[in-house]
# Entry
Amino acid sequence: MNYKLKDKLQGGFTLLEVVIYVGLVAGALSLVIVMFYSLLDSERRNGNRMAVEAEANFLMHKLSWALTGAQSVSQPAVGATSTTLSLTKYNFAGNPLVFDLASSSVRLGRAGGEIVPLTSGRVAVTALVFEHLSSTPSRAEGVNFKVTIRGTAPGFPIASTTLDSTIYLRK
# Structure
């Protein structure tokens, strides 16, 4: 009887059970790896989209800042459109402010001094149009601007956005 009891205690797993458990663990690991790479790819795509949105938001705020408190717009002419906006602000030492598009980047020049880019290399500005709106009895003089920004991250779906806004000058 001692031999039968000893055989039962040393039983262990059969080869079939080991193969099944190894297959289950391998399947679970492959699912985890696929989910991890999917999450990583989604994070990169969202990062590209967030870069475009952040740059567009910054550009919108900078243009709004410049046009709020603007005394006059010298370019484009009233009723015309241009890729350059030149304006003078009330009581501002950096007059004139000049916004333009060069090499897929929006730039800002102050008082004829150094011109600085407002957008980074993570995005490309594909369109920038300023329209100088004339004043009418029912509305003040204003500037309409339309800008299209696209992400430049290689290997990802193109993230882009278009902003269209009108800001009226206070007289």
Summary: The two ends are 109 Å apart (CA to CA). The longest strand covers residues 123-133.
